Amino acid sequence: MKLFKIRGGVHPFENKEATAGSKIMPVPLARKLFIPLQQHIGAPAEPIVKRGDKVLKGQLLADSQGVISAPVHAPTSGTVIAIGKYPAPHPSGLPVRTIIIEPDGEQRWIDISLPYDDPFNLDPDEISARVAAAGIVGMGGATFPSAVKLNLRKRYQLKQLVINAAECEPYLTCDDQLMREHASEIVDGICIMMHALQVIKTTVAIEANKPEAIQAIEEASKDLAGVSVITVPVRYPMGSEKHLVQTLTGKETPARALTADIGIVVHNVATAHAVQQCIRYGRPLIDRVVTVSGGAVKNPGNYLTPIGTPISMLIDFAGGFKIEPARLIGGGPMMGQPLPGTKVPIVKGSGGILALTAEEISQKQTMPCIRCGACVTVCPCGLLPLDMANRARSNDLEGAVKFGLMDCIACGSCAYVCPSHIPLVQYFNFAKGAIIEKQRGQHKQEETRRLAEARTIRMKEQAQAKREMMAKRKAEMAAKKAQEEKKLNAKQRSDAEASA
Questions:
Q1: Most exposed residue of 45, 136, 228, 246, measured as fewest CB within 10 angstroms of its CB?
Q2: pTM reported for the whole predicted model
């Protein structure tokens, strides 16, 4: 298959050797599990349990709210000991609504009934409904509800499914190891997703630095005519879905559009595995493989971790720290987010926990821009990072947007190559946050204005209805009075005639 060259990109040090080939190890249950209600893009889930409730493994704890949302389930059996605020795995460390479970150690599952033998006899809508009910989201880090993507067949003419197995972030090997150990399950999940999307072609894209994973998926899919495994170049950010699709097809996704606009849906390889577990065995998404790595970790590896496990527990299971880390990151070093500490929990989007040393982060002082243009050369979206950053820094949000701010995927390639060590992505994220806040303010003003106008109209309608009612009542009273006068006059005439 011919591959197409994409613009930009960088080749950061991979640093995958510490965990590549590391067998997936299950992590024991923590004494308490902290399950945030917001583990996905969209509206947070709403609790359906209360403090003191006994729950079983896989039981629904909080239901989705709206189309873009996802439910959460109990990672084990135990007791709900609290529903309240707890720090989130986010740079801010701000607390979010969280269900706290104390495991009972029995791992008792809910009763899972599967009233069908062959998932390929299921209606596609039934598959997407089961995936939605299982709380499955994009496990490459985006955490977009997977069922919504599976339903895109209703709005677009889909031709192909692409499985993103590039895993281009340095250090991370969780997807690599998942493919090595569970290739047949992943391929089964891919076939189920093809049936749900009603497509007959799938491309599994794996970077060339994962030969064992490539071999495993090729072996598992060798008898499937519609599934092909393609080796893509080792280049960051090859895992960006739009750039991966362009590499495979030569088609560029329009700005602010979806890959579905050109007939392609992209899912992460771990998502395919989660879908297979859901449809074949009725398992909701209650755990995931997490890469624990970095120079400060004693035993780097890949760990199957229950959702809600405190990072401190995971680090302890990996042997603890050799030295105090200079930085703790959730995800990869390029697009991951600094974590406020080890108390925060593992969530559905936690692909990696990195404890990096001072040498690994090599933090250097920011210097003035020398106008070298390196950031422009490596930007995979063809943007002008420095011009966007200058406008963001001067709070010229409209100017930053005109230079393509909303098309930036925040991959960090520009900051990686900047010889002046300018934190370009931080400026972009600040500007995007400010724009979102501004949009929220405008939406609030518009909603307030709409409600005020609606109230004014409603008050006018009520006043008009009141006037009409008063007029009607007045007319009825006048008619009644006239009727009574008429009766009285008739009686008086009758009495007069009788007297005469």
A1: 228
A2: 0.87
